[in-house]
Amino acid sequence: MIAWREKFRAFYLHFLVTLALSIAAATLIFLVWFPDPFQTMMGGTRFFVLVTVCDLVLGPLTSLIIYNSKKSRRALVFDYSVVGLVQLAAFVYGVYSMANSRPIYVAFTADRLEVVVAADIDDADLKDAPDLYRSRPKWGPVLVGTQGPTDREERNNLLFSALAGKDRQHFPRYYVPYEANLDEINQHARTLDDLERRRPGAKTEVDAAVKELGLPRERLRWLPIGSPRSFWTALIDADSGRPIYYLPVDPY
Question: Half-sphere exposure of 87 toward its Cβ, with a 13 Å CA cutoff?
Fold first, then answer.
């Protein structure tokens, strides 16, 4: 006779342990690595959700199937070791993938902002960076500026690199404090009226953002912000030059 009560007890215990690990990882990923709105902007968190849901369902279901109090302790330890290792491997792979795809910098470059993810920067390129940028930020995206090379040969090399998909925002040696680019930012940032002329359908979202921010329209400007997945619009505080709101509007 199947001892369903014991099996469901094992199921619930396994579920609670998996849930606790999932909550801890989700807190790190959604609140630290992908703070709002980068979750939506980049869309990479769906993979973690898929892996977590599979862990929450398949792991406890496996307990429901394999648990049997009549088994020896050695057999139960073996069974759960195999299940735990498989489940933990999937969980670690999910977290590792999110760590590589997390946004670590929002960099101003040329005439726009660009989201730089951890995997975009090679370890070798970190060695040539200023001390402040020789390691990947661990706690959410950091706002930085960029400054192109002055050497002609290096400019040409960067041009070919950009054509291959790796521009100056992917090389920490070109990073400078964000404030160093304020003149360029003010030069390229445009008014909200300009955005609405480009994208008439965005007026409702713009008005909602202005209301939420509680700032006069005249104080707000905008710049495009690119990510590996899409282009959005960053609203800029004209007084500080810093992005303070992100709209899911492609300004191009």
Answer: 25
